[in-house]
């Protein structure tokens, strides 16, 4: 019996063991458990490996770029832009989630550019800095003909005034200035015609251009061009003995003053209500809306000496008022500009020529003060009590104030010049004309100071400044024409109708 029991027990154990090993339900359970444990440990490793691959490839591409140690803190995204973006389009890896899912990445929507378009409907699907980018027709390009184009006639008109005011004249110099004045009238007419064509060819762009957070600030350049035309017309085209034309100039002055006063109040009121700008985005273009009303003083300084006494005094008083308003607002803007430079550093190298705009307000104020003092009648009775003011003392104070303000322009000129030389712009922008017009006012102020002091040395120094201005004008004009032909401007993303960094 013992043997039988032992055999029975052995058979039972063998049967149980067989059941434990070959039971299909138990086998499936163990297999499922093994798979779960494997996935639990392998999934994190897989994710880590994918992210590591993405990080390594991205950093490798990042380190391959060569950085200029002298580059400003904002120029990184702009340096070798075309090469960088083309390189990313062909080599940039997908994001980790796309590597796992097989989805593709939209490179264009994730790449920061120095001039990017916030409106997705206008965003080009190509690199706007690629030399082989598609060429556009004239109708398409006219959509990007911005208010900033008036910086061209504005600067040309200033150049004609500079030829007229030269302290060291030679035969034919004023004739050259007259030719430039006529050319400026043609340029102004062509630019105005092109602007009107833009608004007709592309309905809705008129309102957008005036309310745009960047292009809108260039609207005052139209009135600045008008100011140079008024002043140049008085210098070159108005006979001093023609009373009808003299009164026409006076009426034009008062009309210009009223319109620009409305502009200075209205545009700033709109900007305060509709836009929100941070201090780090402050640019000298914020000064432009106050520029036209400020040039009322400059116009007054030119036309006052040709006006009858009964009209000259009100013109000078109004001009002094507007000049004071413009300079006061500009000084307040200077505080913000210096704060921006302290906090965020110099602007992107493409915008550094705009720093020369800060040269303009004190320079044109110095020019206007001396000109208005020179235009005062000798026998002026301000308070109507028979007591005449000492015009000589007024002119002395005007000269002293002009020298005071000239030094401020010199300081801003030095800051802007060092910034541009340190990191010159790579692409042409219409903002380059800021290197001409404000510096023209700076040179004219120097000429006025030289005449007031009777200094030939300062006069020759002003002549040297004029030669530099003429050279800068020629270079920028050449660059402007070349940019139009090569479609570097009047092209999507390349003009002032896009919001910048």
From TrEMBL:
InterPro entries: Mae1 (IPR030185), SLAC1/Mae1/Ssu1/TehA (IPR004695), Voltage-dep_anion_channel_sf (IPR038665). Pfam families: SLAC1. It is a multi-pass membrane protein. Keywords: Membrane, Transmembrane, Transmembrane helix. It is found in: Membrane. It comes from the Eukaryota. Residues 93-115 have a biased composition (Polar residues). Residues 75-128 are annotated as: Disordered. Its main location: membrane. The chain crosses the membrane at residues 29-51, 145-164, 176-196, 217-233, 253-273, 285-304, 310-334, 355-373, 393-420, 432-451, 457-478. GO terms for cellular component: membrane. One of its GO terms (molecular function) is malate transmembrane transporter activity. This is Malic acid transport protein. It comes from Fusarium oxysporum f. sp. raphani 54005. The lineage of its organism: Eukaryota, Fungi, Dikarya, Ascomycota, Pezizomycotina.
């Amino acid at each position: 019996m013992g043997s039988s029991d032992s055999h029975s027990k052995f058979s039972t154990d063998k049967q149980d063991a067989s059941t434990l090993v070959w039971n299909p339900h138990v086998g499936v359970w163990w297999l499922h458990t093994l798979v779960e444990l494997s996935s639990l440990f392998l999934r994190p490793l897989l994710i880590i490996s994918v992210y590591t691959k993405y990080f390594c490839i991205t950093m490798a591409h990042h380190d391959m770029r060569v950085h200029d140690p002298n580059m400003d803190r904002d120029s990184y995204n702009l340096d070798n832009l075309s090469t960088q973006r083309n390189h990313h389009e062909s080599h940039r890896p997908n994001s980790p989630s796309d590597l796992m899912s097989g989805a593709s990445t939209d490179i264009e929507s994730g790449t920061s550019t120095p001039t990017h378009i916030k409106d997705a409907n206008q965003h080009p699907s190509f690199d706007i800095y690629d030399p082989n980018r598609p060429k556009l027709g004239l109708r398409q390009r006219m959509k990007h003909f911005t208010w900033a184009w008036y910086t061209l006639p504005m600067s040309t008109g200033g150049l004609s005034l500079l030829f007229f005011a030269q302290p060291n004249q030679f035969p034919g110099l004023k004739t050259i200035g007259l030719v430039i004045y006529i050319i400026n009238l043609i340029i102004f007419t062509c630019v105005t015609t092109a602007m009107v064509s833009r608004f007709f060819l592309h309905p809705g762009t008129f309102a957008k251009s005036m309310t745009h957070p960047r292009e809108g600030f260039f609207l005052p350049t139209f009135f600045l061009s008008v100011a140079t035309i008024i002043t140049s017309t008085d210098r070159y085209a108005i006979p001093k003995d023609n009373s009808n034309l003299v009164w026409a100039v006076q009426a034009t002055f008062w009309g210009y003053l009223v319109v620009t006063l409305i502009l200075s109040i209205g545009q700033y009121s709109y900007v305060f209500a509709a836009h929100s700008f941070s201090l780090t985005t402050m640019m000298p273009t914020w000064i432009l809306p106050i520029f036209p009303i400020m040039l009322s003083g400059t116009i007054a300084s030119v036309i006052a000496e040709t006006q009858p006494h009964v009209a000259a005094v009100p013109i000078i008083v109004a001009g002094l008022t507007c000049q004071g308003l413009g300079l006061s607002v500009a000084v307040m803007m200077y505080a913000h500009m210096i704060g921006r430079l302290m906090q965020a550093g110099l602007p992107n190298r493409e915008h550094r020529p705009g720093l020369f705009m800060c040269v303009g307000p004190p320079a044109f104020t110095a020019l206007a003060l001396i000109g208005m003092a020179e235009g005062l009648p000798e026998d002026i009775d301000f308070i109507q009590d028979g007591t005449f003011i000492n015009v000589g003392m007024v002119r002395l104070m005007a000269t002293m104030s002009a020298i005071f303000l000239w030094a401020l322009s010199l300081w801003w000129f030095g800051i802007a010049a060092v910034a541009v030389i340190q990191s010159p712009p790579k692409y042409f922008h219409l903002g380059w004309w800021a290197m001409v017009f404000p510096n023209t006012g700076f040179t004219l102020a120097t000429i006025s100071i030289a005449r007031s002091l009777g200094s030939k040395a300062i006069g020759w120094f002003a002549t040297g400044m004029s030669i530099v201005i003429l050279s800068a004008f020629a270079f920028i004009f050449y660059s402007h024409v070349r940019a139009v032909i090569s479609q570097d401007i009047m092209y999507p993303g390349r003009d002032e109708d896009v919001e910048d960094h």
